[in-house]
């Protein structure tokens, strides 16, 4: 018999009777969890450095990255570092009013940088052709403010969260389960940034 203890725990129990009492043997199993890397970024430069470093793993990670966080928490700063890491020469700015900006880099690839802050409904997102962008085999999509439209983004995707902190910012990198093998290489690479990882 199975009982869900919490979000991530499953309790398996098997009971049997002896002549004097009932004994239960129970084992707790954990469901596979998405690996999460937590970092403290002390400055805007460290936030850009994180983007540049993750650009080195682009070919090993999903082609859709979701950037979630409050205003001024570092999403666009991270994106600027990522663009530099990809070899994009143009200065990346947030597409708040254009909704999506397009940048070209090595081997005919395209970075689509979205800002969904001004969108009011899922229908509006489909109207701008989000499905076509996501299906482009030569495209890499970076999406700010995705939280109200998550159903539009089929997994797997890399999900990053940015938070204000007392000193700088905090970032969370949520790896899809299918990419869990990258956790150790990423941790090793992140240590070269000399940022706090926990």
TrEMBL record:
InterPro entries associated with the record: P-loop_NTPase (IPR027417), T6A_TsaE (IPR003442)
Q: Which domain of life is it from?
A: Bacteria
Keyword set for this entry? ATP-binding, Cytoplasm, Magnesium, Metal-binding, Nucleotide-binding, Transferase, tRNA processing
User: Residue span of the signal peptide, if any?
Assistant: none
A single GO cellular-component term from the record reads:
cytoplasm
Q: Does this entry carry the keyword Protease?
A: no
**NCBIfam families linked to this entry:** T6A_YjeE (TIGR00150)
Q: What is the name of the protein in this document?
A: tRNA threonylcarbamoyladenosine biosynthesis protein TsaE
The uppermost taxa in this organism's lineage are:
Bacteria, Candidatus Blackallbacteria
